[in-house]
Here is the input.
Amino acid sequence: MKLGVVRFPGSCDDVDAQLAASRVGETVLLWHADRNLHSVEAVIVPGGFSYGDYLRVGAIARFAPVMESVLAFARDGGLVLGICNGFQVLCEAGMLPGALLPNDHLRFRCGQVDVQVVNADTPFTRACERGQILSIPAKHTTGRYYAPDAQLDAMEAAGQVVLRYAPGANPNGSARDVAGVSNEAGNVLGLMPHPEHAVDELVGGSADGLALFESMGEAIDERVGV
Amino acid sequence: MSASASDSRTAGRASVSERRAGCLAEVTPTVEDAIALGLTRDEYALVCGKLDRAPNQVELAMFSLLWSEHCAYKHSKRLLATLPTEGPHVVMGPGENAGAVDVGGGLVCAFKVESHNHPSAVEPFQGAATGVGGILRDIFAIGARPIAVLDSLRFGEPGDSPRSRYLLDHAVGGIAHYGNSIGVPTVGGEVYFEAPYEHNCLVNAMALGLAPRERLVRSAAAGVGNVVVLFGASTGRDGIGGASVLASAELGEADADKRPTVQVGDPFAEKKLMECSLELLDRGLLVALQDLGAAGLTSSASEMASKGDVGIDIDVARVPLREADMEPFEVMVSESQERMLCVCEPAQVDAVLAVCATWEVHGTAIGEVTGSGHMRIFAGERLVGEMPVAALVDDCPLYDLAPERPTAPLYAPPVATLDAGADPREALLALLGSPNIASRRPLFAQYDWIVQSRTVRRPEEADAAVLALPDGSALAVSIDANGRRVAADPYRGAVEAVLECASNLACVGAHPLGTTNNLNFGNPEKPHIAWQLTEAVRGLGDACRALAAPIVGGNVSLYNEGAAGPIYPTPVIGMVGRLPDARRAGRMGFARAGDAVAIAGAFAPALEAGELAKLRGEALPDGLAAIDIERVRDAQAAIRDAVRAGALSSAHDIAEGGFLVAVAECCLASGLGAQLDIGPSDAPFTHLFGEGPGGFVVSGERDALDELAERVALDVFGTVGGDRLSVRIAEHAFSVSMAELGAAHVALARFFS
Here is the structure.
């Protein structure tokens, strides 16, 4: 199994995502200027500040050559996980619904947050139980999820709201405590908290984030019929 | 000590416009111009002697920078020479961009602390941001990947001063902006609020990096005919005169006019520069590497030439510019951020430029290493400056200080905020809510302390930050200096600052490997400041020798004073240590109900110069109690060994606010209360709130504490548990709920709403 981690200039959590993904498979870095996805079976768009993010976050990264290939890969059903800046990029690229706005308190905030699994029937959460609480770090300035109410209703009905901040744990003012959403097909997930930073209790505060990577591993294994 | 720091002490005492007007004149500068740029009349005469003529505009600009306090350390070099710099772990000592110590497994840890005080006083967001950028460049300039940032901040009293709140908010914002965006975690730091910093805040940043030992690179240029390549951001007028104007002696009222001289940081450019530099070194393409800090190309090129005992020719016409009409001297002294200078063999130039192109970083060959022993500056074909390297870098006159112990107090007593008759319960809550002790969470919550997957102990989890190493061991790092205690007694206060860092390391189970320092002082030409500096450096040396924690690098920031007087003398100490097993790193918070609580160590508390004395508005004493450094060192060793053995549930060094505040912090870190029964006491306030080095609050099973008592003085005073902190001492008995402790401790949050 091979997982790719995109590296834009300005990516910060790319190596961390690679470390986490390497617990379930082989990993390769995908350079922003290179359209070749090197036959990976899943793509992770990591956290950071792609191209500095001096414009609206993710607004430049969506135009990177590698993103053309990621878009095509997702259209073909490939698994794409966007974390933090990656979530922002996927929203900008139109691969996920909604948008991420500056936190309601307008500051960068770093801390462990409790995240509830709303939909455990996705390739990213299948190793979790519905309602399970995951303790995962979150750290961002621009993480307030927004979509119009009607769209949020539809997304909830369709199971696209995959992760929510636990009651009282919303760190940014996200609408309806949304922490992570998927596309309609369910093969693209974006979330603001950092599961790649919670795969080892020694440095992660917990190892709860590992479940997302294990889920992806299981989903890929199932597809290739291992 | 390296002279590439960003808080330079170059000396121009004229305004920007006056200085620029003087320098733009198409005539040979006069001695008056030299004085305007900060040289003395005698120094100017010496420069003329070295050149056998009067320096032209480019040469005078370069001499004035390299002969500044910042670059030449002319008032501090002789003192700094007394510091211990060698030890079994030292791989790279003072003189390079950063020091480095061996951490095992073929790895070295590079680290250094540096100041960006005056820029931050003028424009706190960008001043602090570029302070972080500057110290990170020092780390990757020697080939190490930055793995952590810590910061040490000083402001005036936030409750009284809107300006202090503004500086605090924006400096923290600047550190967060730069560190978070570049992907280096900010894992620790400290902040103090004292009236003497009101007009002259301090922003010191420390960075650590890791490198395979063989990747370390020095900054000495070598190989006649080799090519000098400038890479990174293009060069503009930003920061021209920044170092000189801002650092020019003392801050005054017209500082707002100086805001345009503060450089603007671009963390994205630095991120690319860092990755580019590390890739160039990984591929073995470089002979030497140096960052551009204060004094820009002038300082970096001259120092590279000096260290390599060679000459360098530079063509300023080849330097990529942001503004086309820049004068040669402006190109040479620009302090534009995010630039590096390297030396490579001619055959490697194409490969070097290709790596630069990959990272979308400007790379331009701008010069050549020569055998001339001279710095020669060209503008195209035109030679616009020529100076012997030795004259520029080595021949600045050094000055002896004229220290004189002050006969009258230098600092006004603090404004009282607590009634002298307050009982111990009131005192405890006042201390926990005082700006120097309240929780730092509102600050560090704005920093990414997680990125790079190495952070074993996060802020407020332990006395020192702990960073995992690949072999299962870990680095520990602490930064500290209590300026008020140094003001009371520069020698013992400096000793205490070093001991405090080592105690912090002991609490996580680490022994010191090396030390860095940033000496923040007032004007050393004044005898009483010279005395503070001399005494503090003596204390620093004695303590570092006793702990076998040599100084591997650092920085000096002088002239930190304004019309209201000097800052408290503030020798900021950063100490790096190692512990063998990351999984046994100690914690500050109580862990288990039923554990015994003890005070341990070589502790002789006194109220003078402590936080309670400050709250009561007491003047500083003339001196602190004598310290038995060896005894404190032995106590640290005992605590360290017990933590390493996993014998303790928690360990926390007793610092500001004394024993009871330390216990309250152990409660707050865990949510567990404690019951203390201290018994009879002749001086309950001293017992509860007195300060001094060498004391620890530890908790654990009774047997483990009894075992520890065989090595170090230890008194069991109570038990962990419940949701209150209850205390009986002498005739006092009181109890505080965890909720009340917590409510007091969040006092800083209101400054960030």
Summary: The two ends of chain B are 40 Å apart (CA to CA).
